[in-house]
Structures are given as structure tokens and as C-alpha cells.
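Format notes (please read before filing issues)

Several people have asked whether sequences and C-alpha cells are stored in separate files. They are not. Every record keeps both together, in the order shown below: the sequence lines, then the C-alpha cell lines. Line labels are part of the format and must not be stripped during preprocessing.
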Amino acid sequence: MTTLRFVASATACIALIASTAMAQIPDTFTNLQVLPKDISKGELMSMMRGFAGALGVRCIHCHVGDDPNSLDKVDFASDEREPKKVARAMLKMTQRINDDLLPTIGREDYLNVKCATCHHGLTEPQALDDKLLAVVADKGVDDAASTYRELREQYYGQGAYDFSARTLNSVAETLARQRKDPEGAIKLMKLNVEFNPNDASSHLMLGQLLSRQGDTAGAIASVERSLAIEPDNHWAKQLLEQLRAKQ
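Then the structure lines:
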């Protein structure tokens, strides 16, 4: 717990460092602006491995160097790379949360904030729905759907992104309500039920969107699927009655 409360120099080292690499790390350190000046080499290396794993990076993400597989020519003291400066600020923020803010909640035991608390293996800890909405704004819904598939293939099961039905529900609702793009919302909801076929709320939302676009038959099929999963949903029953009355 004490180690987690240190504010470290903004560096990120290779996640698994062999003994040969260990020999390439200097025994004394310069330019430690926030770490204790007397920190041991072993403790520093342990912290660096933690940072690397949390952000999914290698040493030269923050340190000046050309070869990600060798530390031989890495300039650890240099502040040239912008991510090192950013990381210093983030670590100061973490220290303040852990040392100053969390103790004020009144609990004897609390969980300290770590890099991985937000990053989960990502260099930029952006929520998936925000990432997809940015792609929609820049390139369109089809590219957002492709991005979702690619990210799911790469990160599913790692906790990096939220691939639950909630994410695409949120993106689709934003498209339909705020950006007035119901067709785009329908595309993403069809993608959602493809990957989350047993989520009743997603089928219901797709039914609502299809109904607003005049596709009564498609809406009925979606709402019926929702009720098959969640038979007691009052809103789904009500919508199904209204849709059947249109036929």
C-alpha cells in the first residue's frame, strides 16, 4: 500500500525485464522529480513494470530510445518525450487522491487508486461509447461499427473496454436523440443484438427504433424477442400491443 502512494517519475518500462535488461538500468538515478531520491533499484523497477502493464506500453513510450526490446541506449533522465511529462502529472494526481482525498471519506480501509484503475491496459483510458461516438463524428456509423468489431477482437475479455450491451445502447440513443440519426442508431443496435443476443433491453430498443422508422414488422419481431427473454417487462408488452394494433 505504501508503494502505491508514492508519486513516481513519469516513466514506463518493459512489463517483463530479464536479468540482462536489469543490468542495463543504472544503479543511481538522476532527475527523479517526484520519487524519493533514495528509492531502491528493485522498488523502482517494480513500479515501472506496474506502469507498463497498466498502460500496455514499453519503456520507450516515455523514455528516449529506439529499440523497445533493449534498454542499452535508453536515456532515462531525459524529459524530451511528452508522455513522460503527462505521466508525472497523472501520478501526482494519484498521490493526492490516495493521500489527501480518500482518507476524508471516513473509512478505515479503502482501495487506493492505481494507474490500472482507469487505464486497464490502454494508453488512453477512453470509454468505448465515447470512442465510438468520436468515430461516428469523424468517419460515420459504418466505420464506428468496424471499429467496434476490431476492438472487440483485440480486447474482449481484458477489461480494457466495456463490451456489454450497455455501450452500444448508449451510443445508439445518442445518435437517435441528440444527433437525429435513427438509421445510424438502428445499424448499431443490430450490431448490438448480434453480439448480445440475450439482452432484452437491446432488442426492445431496436424495436422502438424500427417502429419510429415505420418498420412495424421488424419492430414486432424485436419486441417479441425481448419478451421471450424478459416476459414480465411491462413496457415491452405495451409496445407490442400498440404495434400489433397497427397491422
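For reference, the curators noted about this record: The chain has two domains: 3-119, 128-246. Residues 20 and 70 are 9 Å apart (CA to CA).
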